[in-house]
Amino acid sequence: MRIDFSKVQIKDIEGNAQSVDISKELGNMMYLNAQDIAVADLGHDIYHKKEVELNKEQAQNVKAFIDSGFKAIVKRELLPLLDKAE
Asked: What's the DSSP call for residue 15?
C-alpha cells in the first residue's frame, strides 16, 4: 500500500477535513528510536521521500510508532489505513 505521509487527511471536531504533513516527525521518530536497521531505513525514507510503499511488516512497524507517538486525531485516520495494508 502506498501512503503519502505529507498529506494525511484529518478531521477536526466539526468534521472539517484538512491535510497535515507528519512525514518529518514520523520519519525522525522511527529513525532515532528503531531497534532494527530496516525500520530505521523506513523512517529515513518516510522523512525524505514522504510517499512510500509499505508491505505488511512495514505497515505494522509504522502503526506501532503512530500508536505510541501521535495524538488520537491522527490515529483515527491512519491506523485503519495501515490495517488495510496488513
From this structure: -
Tens digit of pLDDT for each residue in 61-80?
Answer: 999 999 999 999 999 999 99
pTM for this entry: 0.91
Maximum C-alpha span of the chain: 41
* Whether the Cβ atoms of residue 79 and residue 63 lie closer than 8 Å to each other: yes
Let me know how long the chain is. 86
Q: Please check whether residue 67 is in contact with residue 44, taking contact to mean a CB–CB distance below 8 angstroms.
A: no
Q: Is 53 helix (H, G, I), strand (E, B) or coil?
A: strand
C-alpha cell at 22: 507528519
What is the per-residue pLDDT across 21-51, written as a single tens digit (0 to 9) for each?
999 999 999 999 999 999 999 999 999 999 9
Q: What are residue 3's DSSP bridge partners?
A: 52
Q: How many CA atoms lie within 13 A of 11 on its CB side?
A: 6
